């Protein structure tokens, strides 16, 4: 009887210890889950904060074409200068570089004989949609064209500057108006009608001045406060923006607010960029050959 009582008390003790062990394990698991939950929550909060920061940065969502057009638009009037005959081809150059930076286009291999940038054909690397109607339209033309064309030819074809009637269908029409509508959808511009005596014209005045101010400041800082004195050390998109804004004759608008000394220094450094040798720069590590091919097309 005593033996049975001892066995019973030992069983109860083992059960109690087992219960304590299970309870401790459950508590540890709960603590770990709470810690994991806290970390996930912190991670989510961090991601949301990053997304919020990116969302607040309006210019980060603009394409090169939209940025160049925004630099060229008169803030109150809502249209580009009637005397600017460079922006049309400049916007087509922006499209090629944008597609190149997004991994959709590239230049053909230079070959053993080392073809020049302007002699090499543009080939489609990926036909995945970009989400931008103009870019997708240009990409479709380039993908379906055989034999391929050069950068210089595509700038002319997309601009409609060709004497070959069989190639007129390559022209992208109403580009400035379509880009302006994109900026209206993004809350940067608005739409109005203005009367010019003989005709009415749809205009797109600036409504969100912060976006343009940030854009202008980025361009100014690229050649002033953050000047790298080496094209390869500059952000590729910002480098392309400076080149294409100059080629589109709208870079002056970004430098107009500068003091005389700052203006002179900025233009001096822009000239240094323009004096860069595209062939040599494109051969350097991590260089984007298509970007430099477009630069060569405008500075040749």
Annotation keywords:
58% helix, two-stranded antiparallel sheet, yeast vps74-n-term truncation variant fold, single chain, two-stranded antiparallel ribbon, 300 residues, mainly alpha
| Cross-sheet strand order for the largest sheet | 1-2
Rg of Cα set: 30 Å
- Kindly report the average pLDDT value: 84
Count of alpha/pi helices: 12
Instruction: Note the overall shape.
Output: globular
What's the helical proportion of residues?
55-70%
**Portion in strands:** under 5%
> Which runs of at least 5 residues are low in confidence (pLDDT < 50)?
1-19, 32-60
Biggest beta-sheet profile: 2 strands, antiparallel
When the domains are counted, the total is: 1
- What's the level 1 CATH class? Mainly Alpha
How would you name the CATH homologous superfamily? Answer: yeast vps74-n-term truncation variant domain like
- Return the CATH topology: yeast vps74-n-term truncation variant fold
Work out the number of β strands.
Answer: 4
In sequence order, what are the helices and strands, one letter per element?
Answer: HHHEEHHHEEHHHHHH
The assigned structural class equals mainly alpha
- The CATH architecture name reads Orthogonal Bundle
N- to C-terminal distance: 109 Å
Family: Belongs to the GOLPH3/VPS74 family.
Biased composition (Polar residues): 1-11
Subcellular location: Golgi apparatus, Golgi stack membrane; Golgi apparatus, trans-Golgi network membrane
InterPro entries: GPP34-like, GPP34-like_sf
Q: How is this structure best summarized?
A:
The protein is mainly alpha-helical and 300 residues long. It is built from 12 helices and 4 strands.
């Amino acid at each position: 009887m005593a033996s049975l009582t001892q066995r019973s008390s030992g069983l109860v003790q083992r059960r109690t210890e087992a219960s304590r062990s299970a309870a401790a394990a459950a508590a540890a698991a709960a603590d770990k889950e709470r810690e994991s939950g806290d970390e996930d929550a912190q991670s989510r909060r961090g991601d949301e904060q990053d997304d919020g920061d990116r969302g607040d940065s309006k210019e980060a969502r603009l394409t090169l074409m939209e940025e160049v057009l925004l630099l060229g638009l008169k803030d109150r009037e809502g249209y580009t200068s009637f005397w600017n005959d460079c922006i049309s081809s400049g916007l087509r150059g922006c499209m090629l570089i944008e597609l190149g930076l997004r991994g959709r286009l590239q230049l053909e291999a230079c070959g053993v004989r080392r073809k020049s940038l302007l002699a090499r054909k543009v080939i489609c690397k990926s036909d995945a949609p970009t989400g931008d109607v103009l870019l997708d339209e240009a990409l479709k033309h380039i993908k379906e064209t055989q034999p391929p064309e050069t950068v210089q030819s595509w700038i002319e074809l997309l601009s409609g500057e060709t004497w070959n009637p069989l190639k007129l269908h390559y022209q992208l029409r109403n580009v400035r108006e379509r880009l302006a509508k994109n900026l209206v959808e993004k809350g940067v511009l608005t739409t109005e009608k203005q009367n010019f005596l003989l005709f009415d014209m749809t205009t797109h005045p600036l409504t969100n001045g912060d976006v343009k101010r940030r854009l202008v400041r980025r361009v100014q800082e690229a050649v002033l406060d953050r000047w790298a004195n080496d094209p390869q050390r500059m952000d590729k998109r910002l480098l392309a923006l400076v080149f294409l804004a100059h080629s589109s004759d709208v870079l002056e608008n970004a430098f107009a607010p500068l003091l005389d000394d700052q203006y002179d220094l900025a233009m001096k450094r822009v000239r240094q960029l323009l004096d860069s040798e595209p062939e040599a720069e494109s051969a350097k590590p991590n260089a984007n050959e298509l970007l430099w091919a477009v630069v060569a097309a405008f500075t040749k």
